[in-house]
Amino acid sequence: MDGAEALPCPAVEASLVDRGAALQERNRKVRFVLLAILVANWVVAAAKLVFGLMAQSASVTADGLHSFIDGSSNVLGLVAMGVASQPADADHPYGHGKFEALASLGIGAMIGVGMLELGRMAFDSLVHDKHPTVSVTMAAVMVFTLVINLIVTRVERHYGQKYKSSLLLADAQHTLSDVFVTIAVLISIGLVALGFPRADGLVALAVMVFVARVAYGIVRQAVGILSDTARLDPAQVSQHTLAVAGVRSCRDVRSRGMEESVYVDLKIEVDPQLTTAQAHEVADKVEEILHGAYPQVVDVVVHVEPARAR
Fold it and tell me: Transmembrane segments in this chain: where (predicted)?
């Protein structure tokens, strides 16, 4: 019995199949949301870029480039979800879910690129005294794109929380950064019209601070997934495990994975007089209770050992 590992019982195996099908459906819906957001982001980017170039407005053109980065991140997300939704295989026995975290990391990098563009805008405004050419049409276009981005952010955050998608939530944060860039441009337009030409650079610097915080939060979340940060409280898992009849001790609890797909392994000690079959029954009960306590758990590995003499 020493070193025996529990084999999933039929009920658990059926549950895992259902979870796999649900995960596939969830990934399909996430891809659909990303595609819809991609269209919205590129409509916004095209409006800003075309009008910015026509009006010879550096800040509006730069804001359009920032929106184009939003669209590019959606393309990255669609590609990543196409890979992440693939089932586990021989080379990736734990599935491909981490590709979604890799995409989130890529979005964080893109935000960093946008932050550099904001820095260039601020430098040109403060040092070279460059500022937008103020017009009512420009303000109207910026307000229009602002409304679209606010709607996109709200919708994407809603579905990110609904489907527990780190990618959608990260991209919603990215779009929110574009909202603040647009607000900054609108504020600078107003201040320039009032006779403060360098206000554009000062506002851009303030936005850079916000964008930096957004990028840090996204990168930290993605790194947590990729570095196998613990997902469950070991003490709480041990408490659930020790409630199972026949379990004398629980130790070496480990968990990892993404928010919606967590893997757990642990060691338990049982009466050394139990047969192998009886020990596996105890382990099966542990597996069942952990699946019930944590719906996000997709796999539990229970290592069974005989209880040591105290």
Answer: 32-55, 97-116, 136-155, 176-196, 202-219
CATH at 57: 1.20.1510.10
Kindly report, residue by residue over 182-199, the tens digit of the pLDDT: 887 788 778 877 878 777
Per residue in 25-84, pLDDT (tens digit) is 777 777 788 788 888 878 888 888 787 777 666 667 777 776 776 676 666 666 666 665
* Per-residue pLDDT, 51: 77
SS (H, E, C) the chain: CCCEECCCCHHHHHHHHHHHHHHHHHHHHHHHHHHHHHHHHHHHHHHHHHHHHHCCCHHHHHHHHHHHHHHHHHHHHHHHHHHHCCCCCCCCCCCCCHHHHHHHHHHHHHHHHHHHHHHHHHHHHHHCCCCCCCCHHHHHHHHHHHHHHHHHHHHHHHHHHHCCCHHHHHHHHHHHHHHHHHHHHHHHHHHHHCCCCCHHHHHHHHHHHHHHHHHHHHHHHHHHHHCCCCCCCHHHHHHHHHCCCCCCEEEEEEEEEECCEEEEEEEEEECCCCCHHHHHHHHHHHHHHHHHHCCCEEEEEEEEEECCCC
Q: Residue 48: what are its φ and ψ, rounded to 5°?
A: -70, -45
Mean predicted confidence (pLDDT) in 217-232 = 78
Q: Which residue range(s) make up the domain with 286?
A: 230-306
